[in-house]
Each structure stands twice: as structure tokens, then as C-alpha cells.
Amino acid sequence: MKHTYTLSNIDEAAAALWRECRSYPVITLSGGLGAGKTTLVSHLCHTLGITDAVSSPTFALVNEYRLQLEGKELPVFHMDWYRLKNVDEAIDAGMEDHLEQARSGDAICIVEWPEKAARLLRPPYAAVTIDILGDEERELSIQLVDHP
């Protein structure tokens, strides 16, 4: 799926993203600096009814939000792997544990900069890429990665 959007209709893009990815426990977000990954996560969380303030976890590596979904409260782990040097550092920081919790159905993980520790990703997950088309315009591409 591809979806072109601007800030004026980013909520529509976030809703389309959720419709496409809701059955995937892990959603990865790739794109260059300034592509709007955290902005999209913020709007996705708003779409899901999360009222917590959503901010970039660049320095904390992970922020946790709470989501009510189908009568169940789930943690949403918003991870930013930009500062990670390697997979071992990601494991030491607990990223693998969060991903396992999501795979077991007890959490949702949203990962910015997944390429920094891609070895930790196992299907199923949704790989989302944000391409900058212009100052205001972005294109969202979604690839659903199922079992090999």
C-alpha cells in the first residue's frame, strides 16, 4: 500500500496505516532524518485513542504508552534505534524483550530506525517507509512481512 499525505491529512494516513497493520505486532518506520517518523507515530497514537504525550524516544530509546484495544490494556513501546551502535546494544537495552512481548500478543512495538538492529526483527511485522516528496508532502509505503 502507498499513501501520499501532508500534515493537513496526516490523520488519514495514520488511520490507513492502522487499518493495514493492525494485525501485526511490530511496525517499523524507516525514512531519512526529518521524514516525519515521530510525527506519524504521534498521529497514529492519537488515532488509537492514546492520550499520553507522544515524543521522540531518541535519548530514552523507548517510550511506553497505554492503549485500550478490544477490552484489553496493552503497552505500546515506541522505540527509536537511531543511537544504537549494534544489535548487542539493542539487546542490552531490552529491545528484544519488548519485541518478544509484542510477538506474544501482549504489546505493540513501533520501531523507528529498524535498520540499526534489523537482526532482532522476525516476521510477522509491518515495514513502513516514509519518503520525502517535497517540503510538505510524504509518501507512506507499507510492506507486510509474513513468515518466510
Main pleated-sheet profile: 7 strands, mixed
Number of structural domains:
1
CATH class: Alpha Beta
Unreliable segments of 5+ consecutive residues: none
Order of helices and strands: EHEHEEHHEEE
Instruction: Tell me what the CATH architecture is.
Output: 3-Layer(aba) Sandwich
Choose one word for the global shape.
Answer: globular
- CATH superfamily, by name, is P-loop containing nucleotide triphosphate hydrolases
Radius of gyration: 14 Å
Strand residues, percent: 25-35%
Count of individual helical segments: 4
Would you give the CATH topology?
Answer: Rossmann fold
Read across the widest sheet, the strand sequence of neighbours is 1-7-6-2-5-4-3
Distance between the termini: 20 Å
The overall pLDDT, averaged over residues, is 93
Pfam families: TsaE
Keywords: ATP-binding, Cytoplasm, Magnesium, Metal-binding, Nucleotide-binding, tRNA processing
Family: Belongs to the TsaE family.
Main location: cytoplasm
